[in-house]
Amino acid sequence: MIDRKYPNTRFRRLRRNSKLINLVSENTLNCDDLIQPIFIKEKFNGSESIETMPEIKRFSIDSSLKEIEDIIKSGVNTVAIFPVIDPDNKDDQGSEAIKSDNFISSTIRKIKEEFPDIILIADVALDPYTTHGHDGIIKNDYVDNDATIEVLVKQSLVLANAGADIIAPSDMMDGRIKSIRSALEKAEFKDTILLSYAAKYNSKFYGPFRDAVDSASNLGKSSKETYQMNINNRNEAMHEVAMDISEGADIVMVKPAIPYLDVIQSIKQKFMIPTFAYQVSGEYSMIKLAVNNGWLDKDVMLESLISIKRSGADAILTYAAKEISKEILKR
Questions:
Q1: DSSP state, 126?
Q2: What range defines the domain where residue 74 resides?
Q3: Which residues are catalytic?
Q4: Is 260 within 8 Å of 201 (Cβ atoms)?
């Protein structure tokens, strides 16, 4: 056995300068690892700031095209779009979500026409479309799993037909991956990728996002605890992921990211499947506010993303994607 005691072993030899540090770096965050979420608002022109998300805006369809052009120039090649639906188009069934000519379908078509090479992720869930703010159909004061799946399947087909590259069910209904995959295959969308929000926790870090898509007031004090995961559980996440993989998920995702680094690591090590993580609105806003107030150095955002990458995430959805990608290209 080799005796590697000091001074034979000096770990600082490999930290002598930045080139050496980079040479032996175990993990590297690249522009291709980042995904930029975008909020696109119906019946709206221009852009507007989101009060609870510093430097993040809602965009009209036209202004979103300019934003996506800037995102591409930053080095980011993937966007996840989230609709902000006009209140007049919301109802208790989320009916607008399954209309073939709805707002988000028109948006996807325009984006893909303008930027055919961009990878576009479309969210599958009903909360932007419902008057009650839940992700599914409510029956007897309870989100009905199977009734919701029927709608989610129709929504997925609408999004695939519009040109989405990746369909991302974020609802946490049991069995929805199997049903959506079967429907996609039957409709000849065999190459449409399924990104499952497989381990989505009932987290308090989602608040600013709900402000952004205008669902917070609809949800009120109601909870999503009957379908989103218990924050105390890790083994449950492994079961959720295993089921979604068996049902046809191509990629799985953990949400939120930083509070669940242990879950990301466990999933990646056990299943060795492409694993994404979502640095959610609360994580982003918390860090950004501290940076903007001078409480923390600006590089803490990059550090937070590297920690997610180090835990095993192959790609990260983060509202800081464009900003961090520009920093990466400068280095």
A1: S
A2: 28-330
A3: 200, 255
A4: yes
